[in-house]
Amino acid sequence: MNRYFYYSILMCMMINTIIFVPHILLNNQRNGLVPGLLLSTAVSTGFTVLFANAMRTFENQSLSDILKARLPRWISAPLLIYLGYSWFIAGGIVLISFSNLMKRYILPDMPVQTIAFVMVAAAGWCASQKTRTVLYLLEIVIVTNIPFILLILYKSIGTPFMNWYAVWDAVSDYLWRWPNMEVVSAATYLFTGYINLAIFNKESEGTFRPRLLGLVPVIGLLTLMTTALIPIGFHGEHGAIRYVNAWVSTADSIRIEFGVVERVIYVFLLL
Amino acid sequence: MGTVHDYAALLPATEEFVRRRMDVPGNISLYYFQPVCDADKIERLLIYPIATAPEPASYVESICRRRELGSSEELYGELIRGNVLVALEAESYLFDASKTWNDKPGEANIETTVQGPQSTLSENAAANAGIIRHRYPAPGFRMESLQLGAVTRTPALLLYDADKADPAVLADVKSRIARVEADVVQSTGQLEKLINKQKRSLFPTMILTDRPDRIVLNLAQGKAILLMEGTPFSLVFPAVFYDFMSAMDDLYLPHWVTRMLVFFRYIALFIAITFPAIYVSVISFNPELFRVQMTLSLAGSRANVPYQSYVEVLFMLFMAEAMTEASIRLPRFMGSTATTVGGLILGQAAQQAGLVSSAMIITTSAVIISSFVIPINTMSFAIRAVRYPLLLISSMLGLFGAVVGLFCIVCYLASLRSFGYPYLKGFVGEPSVSFGRRKGQRGTSN
């Protein structure tokens, strides 16, 4: 357990904007959006700390190893099958929504099946490598992508089209409302990267620095705010709900006037 | 159990095999293979002193090393390496009279530096070991001799610093070399292929270098070196991706200059791999990626090109590859003709004839120049090969394909291991050539 743990959390935070998370959050902006975000940050941080501490007691063992060793077979086998399926579905959601995005914005002439097939093939091939290889790949992808993400953030916050009044409106009007379940569950998605530790725990390398765990709620809350509030700032409280992929449309509204690539949407989607 | 004379009699009586009986007390005979021995040395140090010495037997005992030989094969093995068998009564002594070939250090042509050492290794392994030992006087230095190839029995030397090298790597190397089953081993590049675990490799997992300064630096970093007789190139292992991107100049230049140069090198790497793919996808799939003006001028320059963009790219890239290959194979004084014909006539005329667009010519030359920036040659060849799969997938799927392909290449690189060390990994933490201390240089791209 080491820096790779944080990479997997970061990874989950990064991909949240391309799946349904912004959509759900924006649809529920009247149902206690901001308290929901705060609540889910607190809850997920607690889960993260609990899970990380629990896995630290089992060095160099993945969840399946632990379950097999500690539990009778008739409990561990169905549990593993259940977990495997939920992972499969989680990955499937990301892949399918991403291929839909690709078809909609980049390759309109290509059948969506082809795109999904290519992605599944590439992802499957990479995932079938050794665990350590996947971790190295994860690190390289994250380190190379973060500058671009910061660039998008900077551009989106710095542009004159961002209406801070709308954001303030959305936040202040419904600040004291009890959040509903949908908001909390969608928002906790951002933090679910810690679950990958169930597999990556096999490869413990280097020392774990628990102090960095304190950064998880901070970065998580910032990411959540970005996810939910920047589309509101761009499209307005009512406008943001109408988009299917609110964030992609937001990114499309940003322009780098003097950059080589003018439309930020490409930078955003191709990451 | 026969005597040495019996063993010698079993050897083929060819012209190269010399037997000489000397009429001196003690009944001394000399046996050697003429082509591999230095006749002058034998004359000067064996025949003349033995003939004139008052006690030839004690002279032989002092100048030669005693060696019991068990069979005629063993005798042959010793003789063919340039030893002279001195038979004194029934006892056998060996005298090393091997000829040395090409032990002059060459000039650094392959991997040049601006202001580093300008000489390379020679083609003689023992002389090379001397050059390296001279530059690396640490007490931990170890040298082990090996033999490679069933027919050639090429002598090789394994050098490492016992205080720093990883014993697991050394054991791995020795076991792999022991398993080599080839008749003829003539160069270290061939050896790399033989001891590589993969059957079909693309990226090099060992550095081939003829620069003594790089070798010494790697020794000090705990890596192992393999020198081989007959080639100036040595094999350095384990080697990770970053090692291939570092030039020796990085050590001799100021910190920020080095950082900048390494950064440029990675950009060049990115260009060399992805430019053809990006060109195809921008022309054929996503012309809206760049500004409208750019799109228009690209379309304008392609106005009289009748073919699809991938045909154009393949044509141009093939011509460029052929030109590179031709200038390597041609004798040096004809090389300039090839580049003139290729560069000037082909580039200019192909564009005017409407076969390729001028944007394509710019792309091709950017790609070719960028791929020459990579300091280690084997890596630059690998990069040349790797752009074609990327070109293929991006001509089917556009930018999306290019990104997926790049992702797969990075994944493949990350899955490689060089003697147990991860090949491509962020923040390696191992000392690199580029920077004296720890460094964290990041990978290629997405």
From TrEMBL, chain A:
Keywords: Membrane, Transmembrane, Transmembrane helix. This is GerAB/ArcD/ProY family transporter. The chain crosses the membrane at residues 5-26, 32-53, 74-98, 110-127, 134-154, 183-200, 212-234. It comes from Cohnella xylanilytica. It comes from the Bacteria. Pfam families: Spore_permease (PF03845). One of its GO terms (cellular component) is membrane. InterPro entries: Spore_GerAB (IPR004761). One of its GO terms (biological process) is spore germination.
TrEMBL record, chain B:
The chain crosses the membrane at residues 224-242, 263-285, 355-376, 388-415. It comes from the Bacteria. GO terms for cellular component: membrane. Keywords: Membrane, Transmembrane, Transmembrane helix. One of its GO terms (biological process) is spore germination. InterPro entries: Spore_Ger, UPF0353/GerABKA_families. Belongs to the GerABKA family. This is Spore germination protein. It comes from Cohnella xylanilytica. The lineage of its organism: Bacteria, Bacillati, Bacillota, Bacilli, Bacillales.
